[in-house]
Amino acid sequence: MKAFRSMTLAEDPFQTITEFLDKKVVTGFLNLAIPIAVLSIIGLVLAAYMSHDDHSKAKFKSSLFYVCGVTIVLLLSRVIVGWLKFNIN
């Protein structure tokens, strides 16, 4: 008679994928996107300041509004994701 070996289940693959996405992909994206957004804000402010045409200044200022909004969302994304994880569970 063969001895019964206990069967252990493999590690949950979704947990591994979730950790990879959370720790590597999202963190890498945020480490890249936040400095680009800040440099975009600086560039738009300088372009709006140096522009002599009123139409161009208005376009730069409107795009500055959107870039600032995206930057705020990027900076708060870790807090937002943590809040969503807490409330979903």
Structure description:
Helix content is 82%, strand content 0%. The protein is an all-alpha fold. It has a domain at 30-88. The protein starts with 12 loop residues before the first helix and ends with a helix.
Structural descriptors:
mainly alpha; 0% strand; 2 helices; single chain; transmembrane helix; membrane; transmembrane; 89 residues
In a nutshell, what does this entry contain?
The chain is mainly alpha-helical and 89 residues long. Helix content is 82%, strand content 0%. The protein has a domain at 30-88.
Shape descriptor = elongated
Largest sheet: number of strands, sense, barrel closure: none
Rg, Å, rounded: 23 Å
Q: How confident is the prediction overall: mean pLDDT?
A: 84
Number of helices: 2
**Cα distance spanning the termini:** 46 Å
User: How are helices and strands ordered from N to C?
Assistant: HH
Helix percent band: over 70%
Binned strand content: under 5%
